[in-house]
């Protein structure tokens, strides 16, 4: 099994920047089975939404609301994924979650299954 731990959240002013990290730990076998990863966020009273995804090979995609402002990346050697958030807006305020797909018998297991972190709070306010 794999544990994902997010870090880097906090309070920032509008227009500021924040860098989130998602560190994976566990057996080498389990970590090797991680596949595509993504960042999700959930604001109070709203559904959890996917904001950025990255494949094992580094291909990325973003939801329109963050495209051009956020950058997702991963360092497979460090078993860590990152989310660089620039030009933050109050509407970015949410709990941000890390997720990893897993490969089981050549089947990709994604949300709501797979591996989830516990989330880190990001608050954008003056």
Contiguous uncertain segments of 5+ residues: none
Query: Roughly what percent helix?
Result: under 10%
Q: Count of DSSP helices?
A: 1
Amount of beta strand: over 45%
Termini, distance in Å? 40 Å
Structural class estimated from helices and strands: mainly beta
Largest sheet: 8 strands, mixed
Assembly state (oligomeric): single chain
Shape: elongated
Overall mean confidence score, pLDDT: 96
The topology string of helices and strands comes to: EEEHEEEEEEEEE
Per DSSP E runs of 2 or more residues, the count of β-strands stands at 12
Radius of gyration: 14 Å
Task: Outline the structure in words.
The protein is mainly β and 126 residues long. The protein has one helix and twelve strands, in the order E-E-E-H-E-E-E-E-E-E-E-E-E. The strands form two sheets. Strands 2, 4, 5, 6, 9, 10, 11 and 12 form an eight-stranded mixed sheet that branches.
Quick recap:
A hairpin with a 5-residue loop joins strand 5 (49-54) and strand 6.
